[in-house]
Amino acid sequence: MVSVRFLGSGDAFGSGGRFQACIHVSGSGGSLLLDCGASSLVAMRKFGVDPATIDAILISHLHGDHFGGIPFFVLDAQLVSKRERSLLIAGPPGIERRVVQAMEVLFPGSSTVQRKFDVEFVELVERTSARLGGAIVTAFAVKHASGATPYALRVEIGGRTVAYSGDTEWTDALSDAANSANLFICEAYYFDKKMKHHMDYETLAFHAAELGCGRIILTHMSAEMLSRLPDLDAEGASDGLEVTL
């Protein structure tokens, strides 16, 4: 059994009063986060997820609403949770440099202090599977300008497969990431407005048959998309939503 819990299902701007991107995936293989937006530690406290139980943080791309919570997570692990076991952080090329820069901007000196736990950074290589935090993770390059290669992520854990689009306009790589997945978590920023670097629901629906996945849950929705959601034959994420696979 695998549990998927949306700790943050929102966009960068708090549309609908939602926390930024953060999805907790746990199963017999371990416990990890898909993205860790700036509000993620608050969301974890709200929904009762102990940061000390997280084995790995997997980052889709290097925008603050997807990785900006890591400095807070690491400081909490050091000062509050008193973590002692290692933490794995994986993401696009340059992930370590960007996290260190963010830590130094927010909390000068915090990236170099001695800790009782190790932080291991892994740069994901496109379409190369890696065993991380008890899961097998494969990254697929997508289309979203963020200063480094953005990824959709495919996570195999506990005998189930969860695919996650991150932020992207439509690309055939999403079909590869989602193929045969039990769950595909996909952004749908607008209903039908075409916007470079982001997905709209109309485009996703047009390509749905190509995905080859089981269940699709929409996330990272704008206020406009949230207002349309009740009238659609689609499943949308909400903060706190838990799905069992």
Can you walk through the features of this model?
- This protein is an alpha/beta fold and 245 residues long.
- The model has no long low-confidence stretch (mean pLDDT 97).
- The protein contains 7 helices and 13 strands.
- It has a 7-stranded mixed beta sheet. Strands 7-8-9-10-11-12 form a 6-stranded mixed beta sheet.
- The chain has one domain: Ribonuclease Z/Hydroxyacylglutathione hydrolase-like (Metallo-beta-lactamase, Chain A), CATH 3.60.15.
- A hairpin with a 2-residue loop joins strand 7 and strand 8.
- Helix content is 23%, strand content 27%.
- The radius of gyration is 17 Å and the shape is globular.
A few lines on this structure:
With about 240 residues, this protein is α/β, with parallel strands linked by helices. The chain has a single domain (about 5-230), classed as Ribonuclease Z/Hydroxyacylglutathione hydrolase-like (Metallo-beta-lactamase, Chain A), CATH 3.60.15.10.
Q: Alpha-carbon distance between the termini?
A: 6 Å
How many β-strands, per DSSP? 13
For the largest beta-sheet, the strand count, sense and barrel status come to:
7 strands, mixed
CATH homologous superfamily name?
Answer: Ribonuclease Z/Hydroxyacylglutathione hydrolase-like
Shape: globular
Question: What is the CATH first-level class name?
Answer: Alpha Beta
- Please give the count of helices: 7
CATH topology: Metallo-beta-lactamase, Chain A
Mean pLDDT, to the nearest integer, reads 97
CATH architecture: 4-Layer Sandwich
Strand order of the main beta sheet, please?
6-5-4-3-2-1-13
